Amino acid sequence: MGFQQGELFSSDLAPWEIDSANETPSVSVVFPEPPFGPYDYRIPDEMAGQIKPAMRVVVPLGKGNRELVGYTLSVQIAIQPAQSLKPVLRIVDHEPLCNGHLLQLIQWMSRYYLVPLGQVFEAVVPAGVRAGAGTRNQTLLRPSDLASDDSAIKSLPTKQRQTLQQLILADEPLSVDQLKHLAQCSDGVIKKLRETGFIESYTERVMQFDPSTIKTSYERIPAPALSSDQRVALQTIFQSIESGEHSTILLHGVTGSGKTEVYMQSIEQVVSYGRQAIVLVPEISLTPQTRARFQGRFSSVAVLHSHMSGPERHYQWRRIADGHAQVVIGPRSAVFAPAPYLGLIILDEEHENSFKQETVPRYHARDVAIHRASLERIPLVLGSATPSLETYHRAQIGQYKKVALPRRILNRPLPEVTTIDLRSARIDVNRGAISTPLVKAIERTLADDGQTILLLNRRGYATSIQCPSCGHVIDCPDCDMPLTHHRDGSKATCHYCDYTIAAPNLCPKCGFEAIRLAGLGTQKLEIEVQQRFPDAKIARMDSDTMKKPGSHERVLAEFRTGKVQILLGTQMIAKGLDFPNVLLVGVINADSTLHFPDFRASERTFQLVTQVAGRTGRGDRAGEVLVQTYSPDHPAIVHACRHDFDSFSMQELEQREQFGYPPFASLARLIFRGPIQEDANEFAEEVVRRIQSEIARTGSKIRVLGPAPPPIAKLRGHYRYQAMLISQDAAALNSVLARIQSTTKPPGENLYLIDIDPVDML
Ligand code: ADP
Ligand code: ZN
């Protein structure tokens, strides 16, 4: 399944037929910055046959013939007279950066997400690979044509002849040192052979990264006997693998039902056919357990993660491209892993938002994986205890296959979940964040030698700083959002742009002396918990304490060994952890995600409560979950407490259908921004007017909402406006936006962006 060149040449001629006299070959090149291209360039004679699609070349651009690196798309016969085309100046890569399927994937992403091809290339090929990180130039020697001339060889002095024969026998290019060693000769002998033309030399970049720095030996973990549910699920996946066709399979399994075991045995099957698998996980550093489980089962696992050095990433990329890695595990960008023999893609926790990239190209790894799996004609498994409603709906209407693991392993019960109504339970707000029933439950758990997880989805100490006298709230001057108080160093920080000031003692508006810290963050919770349980060892996990690489692993290892009894933190502790001794989970405020101005707010809340509840009762002892909330009757919370995904999704899907939201329509979000409010607004109005007239002209069925200020109306000193486009006709939506994009030039310092299938609504 190598590089399918034939598909990529846009002429009907085979590459070797292109060379004829008046048919000059040319190549289309795209750039990662404006102007994006594609532009055609002439391939000079000396480069004939060396340029293929998906390589970088240096070409001249514009009147001044500025030299620019671009990516090649296709090689063809020049349509224009060859002399009018500028020539390619240099070749950067001597092999294509990706194979034919990946190149097709890049082209699809460019069309679907409305992003120039050159920018998609930069997202697909890691920076470390592009920079050749961890490599150096090496001179290599090979025999020349003269070396096959018997009589010429016979005329050589003995030592030279023997040396040349060693090189011929080696059957591969050798470095000078290697040849010296093999032939036991001096530099002078080799120098002579190069001068007389028996040996030719060339330079090549070779890997210098030392792979022994990567840990490779792991404790072998044998496979357990499967449960009957797991066997059924596995049969379905095997059938898909054997069909040789693409299919998407939703593996809907409750927390602790053994999904990972099903992934691993599916992969064993494809590996036994000599194929490779990609496993996409939300964030690898949060799931060291998953990684260890795969490394304990497969001999050759390539782990990709965001803290990786350029040389290591380059090394792994090569190893994958050479077909040496059986399993690739990584976050969303691992969907581009250049595996030549791909047999299966798995996307775990498919509902997670981190699969959406929030910078250009704003792709969703789930949709890219679907597209890649269909190009490669292989199965894709989407696993979750709380599937996204998009995925669930498609499985229900038969677009995806569906398999379920409705029970936990060994028939362990799902934990009992109880709500604590904060409206009545906490009459005295000053008593703190933890209600009496939760305090009692923690005491009980500590006495039983069990462990507790506390979830609070807000980092920092206080979430806002407000003057009790005049009501003034201290805002970020650049973002129009309240600053969060952090106790370490007593500072106030904007969580959107990192603007930081010393926390004020006086109200800056009225001078009142007792400015109040309102709201609750994880720092404040940690202090409260420590005061109430002075003997317990507590660890906090949020993006403030987890800045250093390796911090997750360290804290989780301490929790695993039982050194830490109470683990508290933001949603990063809600995911994927499997610790049998966790007997209690407390949700400090389940409403924190509920009242967001986002049509997915209920879904997020349901997912978060269900996922964190799933962290308990995973061992022999039963687990308990207490959910503090001001909205105990909200459907998201009621259904999460009953572990009732079916009822929740039915009710929520009805609402989505009624309001015409995804999965019943496609969505695109446009954000306009600029330093002057009126100008940004006027720009937004003008583009929306043009969208409206384009819709009218083409007769497309598209609803347009806005422009209006989004929840974050000002960010980093820029005023923002948003417009939302909703349609059941995704193709029409795409073509209207493509047209608008090609004709829009933002005035002055204004900018705009298009987000297809947006996840972030702030
Ligand atoms: P999920 O990914 O669905 O949350 P896991 O795959 O983490 O579930 O499985 C939960 C626990 O059950 C893990 O500790 C795993 O090793 C164990 N397990 C999985 N399958 C089996 C089985 N068939 N027999 C015994 N233990 C199992
Ligand atoms: Zn700010």
CATH architecture of the largest domain: 3-Layer(aba) Sandwich
Gyration radius, in Å = 30 Å
Specify the biggest β-sheet.
7 strands, parallel
Q: How many strands in all?
A: 31
State the low-pLDDT regions, or none: 1-21
Cofactors and ligands: adenosine-5'-diphosphate, zinc ion
Strand order of the largest sheet: 11-12-10-13-14-9-15
CATH homologous superfamily grouping of the largest domain: P-loop containing nucleotide triphosphate hydrolases
Strand content: 15-25%
Proportion in helices: 25-40%
CATH fold-level assignment of the largest domain: Rossmann fold
- State the CATH class of the largest domain: Alpha Beta
Rounded mean pLDDT is 88
**Shape summary:** globular
The number of distinct helices, counting runs of at least 4 residues, comes to: 23
Structural class: alpha/beta
Q: Span between N and C termini?
A: 43 Å
Number of domains: 5
Written description of the protein model:
- This protein has about 750 residues and is of the alpha/beta class.
- The chain has five domains: about 120 residues, GIY-YIG endonuclease (3-Layer(aba) Sandwich), CATH 3.40.1440.60; about 70 residues; about 180 residues, Rossmann fold (3-Layer(aba) Sandwich); about 190 residues, Rossmann fold; about 90 residues, Ribosomal protein S10 (Alpha-Beta Plaits, 2-Layer Sandwich).
- The protein is about 30% helix and about 20% strand.
- It contains 23 helices and 31 strands.
- A seven-stranded parallel sheet has the order 11-12-10-13-14-9-15, sandwiched between helices. The chain has a six-stranded parallel sheet with strand order 16-26-25-17-24-23, sandwiched between helices. A five-stranded antiparallel sheet has the order 2-1-4-3-5.
- α9 packs parallel to α10.
- The longest helix has 22 residues.
- The radius of gyration is 30 Å and the shape is globular.
- The chain starts with a helix and ends in a 6-residue tail after the last strand.
- The N terminus is likely disordered.
- The structure holds adenosine-5'-diphosphate (ADP) and zinc ion (ZN).
- The site of zinc ion (ZN) has 7 residues, from loops.
